[in-house]
Amino acid sequence: MVYQTVFTIATLALWPLRAASATVLPVAGPKRFDVAITTASLTDSDRLDPFTGDGRARSIMVSSFNPVASCLQTHLEAYMPPATAAFLDDKFSAYGLPNGSFRSLQIETCNTTQRGPCSSDNFPLVLFSGASETSRLIYTSMLQSIAATGYLVVSIDHPYDADVVEFLDGTTVTGKDISSDEDIELALATRVGDITFVRQQMTNATIADNLFPGHQLGNRLPKTAVIGHSLGGATAASAMLQDVSINAGLNLDGSMFGKVLEAGLDRPFMLMGHENKTQETDPSWKAIWLQIKEWKAEFEVKGAAHYSFSDLPLITAVLGLQEQLPAEVAEFLGTIEGHHMTELIVEYVSMFLDLVLKNGSENGLIESNDNFPEVVVGA
Ligand SMILES: *[C@@H]1O[C@H](CO)[C@@H](O)[C@H](O)[C@H]1NC(C)=O
Ligand SMILES: *[C@@H]1O[C@H](CO)[C@@H](O)[C@H](O)[C@H]1NC(C)=O
Ligand SMILES: *[C@@H]1O[C@H](CO)[C@@H](O)[C@H](O)[C@H]1NC(C)=O
Ligand SMILES: *[C@@H]1O[C@H](CO)[C@@H](O)[C@H](O)[C@H]1NC(C)=O
Ligand SMILES: *[C@@H]1O[C@H](CO)[C@@H](O)[C@H](O)[C@H]1NC(C)=O
Fold first, then answer.
1. Sorting pLDDT into bands at 50, 70 and 90, what band is 7?
2. Structural domain span for residue 185
3. Residue 307 Cα, ligand 4 centroid: separation in angstroms?
4. CB distance 163 to 135 below 8 Å
5. Signal peptide: which range, if any (predicted)?
6. How many structural domains comprise the chain?
7. Binding site membership of 371 for ligand 5 (Cβ less than 6 Å)
8. What's the gap in Å between 375 CA and the centre of ligand 3?
9. Mean pLDDT, residues 254-270
10. Which atom of ligand 1 is nearest to the CA of 112?
11. Residue 150: how many CB atoms within 10 A of its CB?
12. HSE-up of residue 195 (Cα within 13 Å, Cβ side)
């Protein structure tokens, strides 16, 4: 493993040194595999993009996180492609993050894998959908760490709903203002369409092999869970309603809405919320809870805030900025130290996935956990 310090050019003198030097985001939790990451654009020729209004087919960007049993070589790569990093640097500088922070971040991935069947493990599939006005890329570390526990993960950008989506040729699609109830319903329906499309694309051997070389996914239907943050959490439940081949769902801190509140779910579903987001405070959580007919659990994370369930706390911790953020930023990142917060998510998400997709037990999940005293088991 090679860790290097690279200095980026331009305007460095204006900012603290640590934001300017390259910083590697660590893999958190019980890592068992190195992970290879591939990005791809997928076009659904059966669906028009409802946001462009010009008869164009819906195109999305995805990242696959592929656990590699025998990684021959790892390397450092940019956390984000350049236009996205520049966009987010601009956006977050308004919140006190030094300009250049996102451009300075790197991750370590496996880039040289053995071809052919590299593993006898039948890894299940996990599809991820993030918050609105948010890039899928600000969940990369979290998802890399989850994949490292033995899951094939695909994160999905939903263009026009995400604040910025960068395609492979460098073109970007910036977000539209999605705020009316009508817009949010359209965004939810479009996200559900994106997820069921990606699920179905995994049965195409060409695409599955590009995203997960060596796993021969196209020849088997892997067990599948959908995980979402915020609007993505509501999407996870609605996608399960739409697509019965999805085995389980997990909502990180999203309020629930849509038909699923009445229709309910007949497969396992878990809710994890920030401090004081529970069935007692969010009526939509109470409503869905009563309608989950299978295994269910609810957790409250004391000290967490809405964006605790992303890489942002880890990024600010790694940059050494977590203690220095303005109060209004701390309010949406919570007070839990960034490495610990990522470990917490990876631990609870992987225990849930092990239970619903592998042969895990629920004991560790629903018992109190000395490593994570801030997690309160609800209901
Ligand atoms: C993998 O990364 C190493 C180190 O950066 C590099 O030397 C090598 O060429 C890369 N291999 C591929 C196939 O990209
Ligand atoms: C951040 O830095 C970039 C590149 O140096 C510059 O173009 C941009 O205007 C800066 N943004 C802010 C908000 O200062
Ligand atoms: C699988 O995907 C490839 C690449 O997009 C496409 O050319 C091919 O037609 C697809 N195959 C099927 C059976 O849909
Ligand atoms: C959560 O609720 C308790 C009790 O009402 C309150 O003391 C606490 O400040 C709340 N926490 C947050 C983060 O709002
Ligand atoms: C689940 O199966 C794996 C592989 O077959 C085995 O190593 C593991 O011990 C099992 N776990 C439980 C909790 O039974």
1. very low
2. 2-377
3. 17
4. yes
5. 1-22
6. 1
7. no
8. 44
9. 97
10. 13
11. 20
12. 35
